[in-house]
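hiii, so i know i said id send this last week but things got crazy w the move. better late than never?? heres the sequnce for the chain we talked about at the cafe, plus the structure i predicted for it. fair warning i was half asleep when i ran it
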Amino acid sequence: MTVISASELRSRLSQVKLLALDVDGVLTDGGLYYTEMGQVLRKFNIKDGQGIKLLKQAGVEVAIITAKSALSTLNRAQDLGITHTFLGVKDKLAQLKTLCQKLNISLSQVAYVGDDVNDIEVLQAVGCPMTVADAMAINQSIAVYITKLPGGQGAVREICEMLVASCR
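okay and structure toks below
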């Protein structure tokens, strides 16, 4: 983990205008369930969803940026009212930069949560790189905050609550 003081973390959190999230391993536990018909199922955590709703109420934008093109992710995003949902993204950083331009914010005002190697470039570019307890070691070495909980088990709620508290 990139070592920063508690006051520096609070300062970074207070600057966040957008929370961008990976899906598999962050909003889910990273497991994929296959039905006999070959359909892939993902399990999302209801506590994470409530945290996202509270964060949006506090005025922070939320985005999903994922390499997979799963209808289940789109459905979950719609349930949560996440309008910035990008599926099948090959270059997450380019997508995030485009979104930041649209929202008229800088990368320094973004908190990004990613757990695996395809998130490293984004983590290195944003003002508040974060990851989950069970993320890859390299992601943890870049992050300014590592959740106490693993992905898909309330980690996003943990981050949302910190961001909501920093909005007050």
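btw DSSP finds seven helices and eight strands in the chain. thought thatd interest u
miss u guys!!
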